[in-house]
Amino acid sequence: MSELEATPPGASARSAADAPPPHAPTSRPGEGGDEGLLSVLRDDGTLDPATDPCLSDALLLRAYREIKRLRLLDARMLLLQRQGRVGFYGACTGQEATPIATALAVEPTDWIFPALRESVMMLVRGFPLRTYVAQVFGNAGDLLQGRQMPSHMSGRQVNQVSWSSCIGPQLPQAVGAAWAAKLRRDSTVVVGFMGDGATSEPDFHSAMNFAAVFKAPCVMICQNNHWAISVPTDRQTASRTIAIKGRAYGVPSVRVDGNDVIAVYRAVSEAVARARDGGGPSFIEALTYRVGAHSSSDDPSRYRSQEEVDRWTERDPLLRLGRHLAGRGLLDDAAESSLEAELNAEIAAAVAEVEAMGPPARETLFDDVYAELPWHLRDQRAELLRSPKAPAHGGGR
């Protein structure tokens, strides 16, 4: 039994009497299916030849770079939030492998319906870092005109919608978009994300059932990070796994090591290919862990132990992939230092440029509401523009 499965989620923070019943899966790492655990990359950086999809050096280095950038970006944004320079942030620390691998596995024409920790897929798919950071600030550089709270990024140019803080509604939306693609007979595949908590919401069950019945070309991915804010997985479901829930709806499902970027890439690639070929939906449970807080508003020490966090930190997806690259002679200390300096400089430059921007222009209040602005709103906009601007406060912020 793998270390991931040997200790029930959150068990170290609760008594033995609170532990879930002894029905945890017994499949060995490397085995697939909805009760096993598909894995490729071992903790020491070596590969399982039986499951290795033989990815290119270039793709593996790209994955490492993207994970590294996200790790550094999250750290910088959380620092800015603690300094009062941005209002809110939700980091992805510890579970970067799944969104990065998925972004590398899909086509530019595919659509993404994310949850809280998949916004970074936009960057992997070519969205500008400066514009991404501007959304956290909600200022004049923000495509959303400051109307959406931070960590709810979206961009039409990379086919990614914004998620809702209400848990689960993006799932029927993702299935609906996939069904529309099928009706239009194009090759688009839609990926819908959720956390483990969303699988307890009615939207999850509606989406899964509709997707299966109408064979929508979609891939539903659950990032099971073991905590729905402060609720552990074993307190919200008695299922042996989350992936097994796909059986009831006739949706092929697989459970994958979500801290193994290679295994996730393989699972998502296979599911996307199946959907694109007309095979219908798939459901993937990516077993991972949220190392940091749920968001900048959360204190995880109130509900889980540091011992549990430390145990999962040893399975850090960045470290595991780094060990593999080092073992293949593709990464050494000098290259690592150079990459970190380059990425930190890129992030610092984006933050400096964005933070110097002012708020969205006040006339943008009337944008993106109607295709053609009605007369009464045109009159209101003209009146607003005739009025003097309010004086700036707080150094322009």
Task: Give a short summary of the structure.
The chain is an alpha/beta fold and 397 residues long.
Structural overview:
With 397 residues, the protein is α/β, with parallel strands linked by helices. The chain has two domains: 3-355, Thiamin diphosphate (ThDP)-binding fold, Pyr/PP domains (Rossmann fold); 362-396, no CATH class. 38% of the residues lie in helices and 8% in strands. It is built from twelve helices and seven strands. The chain has helices at residues 3-6, 57-82, 97-105, 121-124, 129-137, 170-184, 202-213, 261-276, 306-313, 317-327, 333-355, 375-386; strands at residues 111-113, 190-195, 218-224, 227-228, 231-232, 253-257, 282-287. A hairpin with a 2-residue loop joins β4 (227-228) and β5 (231-232). Residues 1-30 have low confidence and may be disordered. It comes from Sorangium atrum.
